[in-house]
UniProtKB/TrEMBL annotation:
The keyword Zinc applies. Belongs to the Gfa family. SUPFAM superfamilies: Mss4-like. Residues 4-115 form the CENP-V/GFA domain. The lineage of its organism: Bacteria, Pseudomonadati, Pseudomonadota, Gammaproteobacteria, Lysobacterales. Keywords: Metal-binding, Zinc. This is Gfa-like protein. It holds the Pfam family GFA. One of its GO terms (molecular function) is carbon-sulfur lyase activity. It comes from Lysobacter capsici AZ78.
């Protein structure tokens, strides 16, 4: 596992991600599409907020299940608690230093059609577990 460093644009929110990043997800829902975020899933033990936790703002919409965190100073979305897995984090890889997105396998997630995409995702996870 590699320690990755990341931050928002102004540098108030800094974090570390302990992970080997080889793949990520790009969601086309109304917020992710506009943000241009590329997401990597992480558990609580893998993500550590180093500074700026008090500068984070929370945005929720729709079902209010997902928690989208962003820097209240510069507005950059650093990480979220996704609706599909609210006990996990998704980290915006565009906020991690030194990540070359062209080297990653980026899977699409059809967030515009969330219910069917979530069902398809759950079925694929069950298939992988077998």
């Amino acid at each position: 596992m590699h320690k990755q460093s990341g931050s928002c644009h102004c540098g108030r929110v800094t974090f570390e991600l302990q992970a080997d990043i080889r793949e990520a997800m790009e969601c086309n829902c109304s917020i992710c599409h506009r943000e241009g975020a590329i997401w990597f899933g992480a558990d609580d033990a893998s993500l550590r907020i180093l500074s700026g936790e008090s500068d984070l703002s929370l945005y929720q919409f729709g079902t209010m299940a997902a928690k989208h965190y962003f820097c209240g100073v510069c507005g950059v979305s650093t990480f979220s608690r996704p609706r599909i897995a609210p006990n996990w984090w998704v980290v915006n890889l565009r906020c991690i230093d030194g990540i070359d997105l062209s080297e990653l396998k980026i899977y699409p997630f059809d967030g515009r059609n969330w219910e069917s995409a979530a069902l398809q995702y759950a079925q694929s996870r069950k298939h992988k577990a077998k």
